[in-house]
Design brief:
Layout: E1 2-5, E2 12-15, E3 19-21, E4 24-26, H1 32-37, E5 46-52, E6 57-63, E7 71-77, E8 79-86, E9 97-103, E10 109-112, E11 116-122, E12 127-133, E13 142-144, H2 165-168
Antiparallel strand pairs: 1-2, 2-10, 3-4, 5-12, 6-11, 6-13, 7-10, 7-12, 8-9, 8-11
The protein binds dtdp-4-keto-L-rhamnose.
Dtdp-4-keto-L-rhamnose is lined by residues 48, 50, 58-59, 61, 118-120, 137, 164.
Pathway: Carbohydrate biosynthesis; dTDP-L-rhamnose biosynthesis
EC number: 5.1.3.13
Protein name: dTDP-4-dehydrorhamnose 3,5-epimerase
């Protein structure tokens, strides 16, 4: 498994070794041992799955402490541009974002530590997005930032994504008091 440490501290991408034969392909999408060795340590308690049409944008989401979630995200079908924003107040990269394309072709997996806002845009129809979370869904602890906030300055590479009403109401980062 190849390990890539991204510029935002703690953001780690894994690229598994893919075994192909006449039946198809096989790869380990998760290995606690290998991933923990690289620093992706979390107590995974919930797996989520969403399917999205091309152009659907979900995010930018987080859960506030004590229900903050680390996430281990990947795409099992299709392609997505994954975007994370560092909201850890003590981090040298606070407010900065990173983008990683996730796809079945690459079979890559991204570890997003707690303290980040997370979102993605589906780049293909029927994009199947799978992720592990280190805490249970806690609706009262949900928070987020607006995907198109000019202060975040994220180029999603898409003009008019399909966004939920809830996500369109999220605030920008200006005046935001990070709970992390
Ligand atoms: C996130 C979540 C939602 N739900 C329910 C609530 C709601 O009725 C329905 C859809 O929820 P949402 O609109 O929040 O789904 P979605 O916009 O896909 O939310 C997800 O977005 C990505 C970017 C993340 O990072 C995730 O943590 C999560 O916030 O599913 C659960 O039951 N459990 C969960 O863990």
């Amino acid at each position: 498994m190849e390990v890539k440490h991204h510029a935002l501290p703690g953001l780690i991408e894994f690229v598994p070794r893919v075994f192909a034969d006449e039946r198809g392909v096989f790869f380990e999408s998760f290995s606690a041992r290998l991933m923990e060795q690289a620093g992706a340590v979390a107590n995974w308690v919930q797996d989520n799955q969403s399917r999205s049409k091309k152009g659907v944008l979900r995010g930018l989401h987080f859960q506030r402490p004590p229900h903050a979630q680390a996430k281990m995200v990947r795409v099992a079908q299709g392609r997505a541009l994954d975007v994370v924003v560092d909201l850890r107040r003590d981090s040298p990269t606070y407010g900065q974002h990173a983008k990683v394309e996730l796809s079945t072709e690459k079979s890559n997996v991204l570890f997003v530590p707690a303290g980040f806002a997370h979102g993605f845009v589906a780049l293909e129809d029927d994009t199947l997005f799978l992720y592990k979370c280190s805490d249970y869904y806690a609706p009262a602890a949900e928070g987020g930032l607006h995907w198109n906030d000019p202060d975040l300055g994220i180029d999603w590479g898409i003009e008019s994504p399909l966004v939920s009403g809830k996500d369109e109401e999220l605030p920008g980062i200006r005046g935001f008091e990070s709970p992390f």
